Amino acid sequence: MTDTGSEREKSTNVGVLKAMMAFLQPYRWQMVGASIALICTAGITLSIGQGLRMLVDQGFSSNASEAALNQALLLFMVMILLLATGTFVRFYLVSWIGERVSADLRKAVFAHVIHLHPGYFETNLSGEIQSRITTDTTLLQTVIGSSVSIALRNFLMFVGGLILLFITNPKLTGLVMLSVPLVVVPIIVFGRRVRTLSRTSQDRIAGVGSFVGEAVKNIKMVQAFNHQKLDKQAFDGHVESAFTVAIGRINQRAWLSTTVITLVLGAVTAMLWVGGLDVLAGKISGGELAAFIFYAVMVAASVGAISEVYGDLQRAAGATERLLELLAAENLVPTPDQPLPLPVAPQGHLQFENVGFSYPSRPEQRAIDNLNLNISPGSSVALVGSSGAGKSTLVDLILRFYDVQQGAIRFDGIDIRELSLDDLRSQIAMVPQQPVLFTGTVADNIRYGKPDASAEEIEAAARSAYAHEFIERLSEGYDSFVGEGGIRLSGGQRQRIAIARAILADPTLLLLDEATSALDAESEYQVQRALELLMKGRTTIVIAHRLATVVNVDIIAVLDHGKLVATGSHTELLQSSPLYARWASLQFDEGVNAPDVVATV
Ligand SMILES: Nc1ncnc2c1ncn2[C@@H]1O[C@H](COP(=O)(O)OP(=O)(O)OP(=O)(O)O)[C@@H](O)[C@H]1O
């Protein structure tokens, strides 16, 4: 997945396109229609040569009648009409299939990716996945929608044209056979250069885009450090290098066109000369020569077109490979084939039994080591421990973002691996350290865990989270947009929205990662009250950073290097666990000696 740009574009395995057949299968009737239109238009185009011959021989010969001319032109008109209709049908259907298949692929890949275990995204960058779903599918859409049709049409033209050439005049055909490579070789050579350069050009343009993206996103940082001048210089460099590459490509393209025009017209002139002598000698008719040149140009052009789109087909094969790889990525935390049902009235009883876990990227290091803990329904547990002790890992294991490698985690007595992921997570709400808000309105964000919630329910949840008041003060209340990632709200406001979201979801099990960053006293007070209300009557596991929390929970679990080293209340642990005492003194400073004061805050 971390392949480079140039590797990305190439794939020699055109056969991988076969795998696309599964996606084309539902649209076989459209494909049949497109094929018929394709064959018809190719047939008509080929017959134009014959029409031309008739026109020249009968229409303009000295003994031709006006009626014959009219008849020939009428036939020509009918053929043109048929060609126009066929072209419409072919273009419409083929483009339709291209768009449809790429839409289906996008949906299939996203539907697969969104369910993958989070560990997958540690090794596969989100930007890369994004570009697969957008750029690679767009590439396929272009190829299916045009390149394949160009290749097929030109193949038919090539075969048909060649047959008709032989029928029309075998001697001149020899001359054509000589001129075809003359035209094709420069097309291939220049075409290849143009392709490489256009790839580089695209990369450079992408560089320009990402530079702008980064600068604009961090505009305050840029301006605060007076970095505009340097950024402008760097940006100018990007733009100029994109320009240089583009000019190189245009140069090659211009040479390509010039060479092709010279060679094609040169070959036509040669044929006119040889054929013209034959016409003068009465060996062939003028119409035959006209038809012949028509077919010769057609054959040469079709070979050129096929060689052009062959590169596209290769690139499409590469894109398909990458998309199929994404589709084939295995979910390491699957829902069992026959999941056990949740109890009718879930209690929120959580048990850790000899739980052992190492991250796949660090198999030698135990992030959780033989951990046993029984959390009775409705009780609250604070996880404490130094940085890297395994607190967040434990929370991730409960959500089944990873599966334990040893022992089991049980929810109401059922191993969580036996439950469906949906059922398990429907019982859990999470309030993360950095609240995650999505682009949308305040109401959308509160509704996140319960999409069908009514406006009244949303407001009730916001009131319980002490968020209603500030939401009301926003210009459009609940319909105010929060900006990307909630940028238009303060830290404390975002936290209360995250709490309102959890209240609305009404889970049996609450996972809470307290914010470490200090809020002002008023926000802190409101967030704390909101949390207390949320925790009431639910099994709660909180990664604690506040003294007010540790003194209020039922039990504190002290973690060290993935091991559970002590459990008890704050006062008990201050006596019994030197590790806890030290951690608490570091965490709360002088507050340790005055828990009563803080607890009332
Ligand atoms: N995705 C990961 N891949 C590999 N190792 C990881 C990953 N996430 C965490 N770890 C490691 O696992 C151990 C436990 O990390 P964890 O995040 O659970 O600690 P924590 O107690 O939550 O720390 P903090 O308080 O700093 O958030 C650490 O040694 C950490 O480096």
UniProtKB/TrEMBL annotation:
Coiled-coil region: none
Source species, domain of life: Bacteria
PROSITE patterns assigned to the protein according to its UniProt record, in alphabetical order: ABC_TM1F (PS50929), ABC_TRANSPORTER_1 (PS00211), ABC_TRANSPORTER_2 (PS50893)
All residue ranges annotated as the ABC transmembrane type-1 domain in the record: 32-315
Segment forming the signal sequence: none
Keyword Membrane: yes
Transmembrane residue ranges: 31-52, 72-93, 150-168, 174-191, 254-277, 289-310
Membrane topology: Multi-pass membrane protein
Location(s), subcellular: Membrane
GO terms assigned for molecular function: ATP binding
UniProt keyword list: ATP-binding, Membrane, Nucleotide-binding, Transmembrane, Transmembrane helix
Pfam families listed in its UniProt record: ABC_membrane, ABC_tran
Residue ranges constituting the ABC transporter domain according to the UniProt record: 350-586
PANTHER family: ATP-BINDING CASSETTE SUB-FAMILY B MEMBER 10, MITOCHONDRIAL, ATP-DEPENDENT PERMEASE MDL1, MITOCHONDRIAL
Protein name: ATP-binding cassette domain-containing protein
Organism encoding this protein: Zhongshania aquimaris
